Input
Amino acid sequence: MTVPLDPPAVFAEFIERVACYDPVPDTGPVAVIGLRTALGEATFQVSDHVVRAMCRALEAYRDPDDRGTCSSCGSRSLDENLHCRDCGRLHGILGAVIAEHARRVAADPSYGPPG
Output
């Protein structure tokens, strides 16, 4: 079971970790961030340093399910085996190896049913 995140607590912890490295401390807030979730709400006054750190963290984030785009249909629905759930194409080295093997099998009559 996945433990639910507490976004206001996560934001507060991030701000605390980053704010102590502000090269110009005590200059006052440049932004106010409000966050409301089912678990509660919070308002954070943050410095330019913290805003920049948040922006860099968000820019650097990559979803674990992001496996790129399908080169055939452009979908972002590649599964863990790089199989496109929308058009059925296999991608990457695995897809190339399987496709090449399938072509060889299809062209070789010895792979057919015994008979």
Summary: Residues 64-114 form one domain. The chain is about 35% helix and 10% strand. The mean pLDDT is 88. The first strand starts at residue 31 and ends at 37.
